[in-house]
Amino acid sequence: MYLAELNWQQAEPVLKDPDTVVLIPVGSTEQHGCVGPLGTDWLIPEEFCRRLGGMDKVLVTPVIPFGVATHHINFPGTIDLGIETMIGVMTAVFESLYRHGARRFVVVNGHGGNDPAIEKAALSMYRRGAQVSLIDWWGIAPKLNPDWPTGHGDAQEAAAVMAFRPDLVNAGYLTDNVVNDPTPALRQVHINTVLFEGAPVKIIREIRDTVNTGGLGGLESKFATREWGTAMMDGLTEWMRRFILEFRRIPLPAKKWE
Ligand SMILES: [Zn+2]
Description:
Elements: H1 8-16, E1 21-26, H2 40-52, E2 58-60, H3 83-99, E3 104-109, H4 115-127, E4 131-136, H5 137-144, H6 155-164, E5 187-190, E6 193-196, E7 199-202, H7 226-247
Helix pairs in contact: 2-6, 3-4, 6-7
């Protein structure tokens, strides 16, 4: 079921049912390397939730298309809510649904920068007797198949978009990454991470000072294929389907914390 398609009389018993799992797709509108559309981070979660909306006792909310994109703001088109506003947005969405009876929430997230805000809002819900899970799909994908490595604005995300909106990944914009290592001994391996003596460490810089395209971390976008994206979206959808069934079995927390 999709919340936006129900009227309030139809929504009432669904939200009051303690077995209902509410799926909240969340993302960001931000630069995604040389070929990824600005909507990459919300288009993908929305697609997962569209596929999962037919499950019994699952209710999908409209997507939240903005997030914490402070580190991408110097690329045109990026919209940044900032972390405090994002905590407020997530809290307001959870609390509205809680008021109507919902107690089980799965956030299907497309953007790592949102994690601290979602987790802060989710912990407040736990203390009120609700249970929230946060699915960061890009980190699960390489666990399902090591040939699906993750990064930002590179092949993994481009492949995912190609699975359902191939028209949005325009190969005419493919550009090789020019990576600016801070020093020869500090090799930039992700938009904010370098390797020193083989170990990862964060060095905070403007991404435009780090890599020309804005995308870095896994394979470059030129390696994305629709076949990869299709297999990955299908595999992750089925993993999420199984996870949601298990998640529903968690006893709700006692409402003893404030
Ligand atoms: Zn992304």
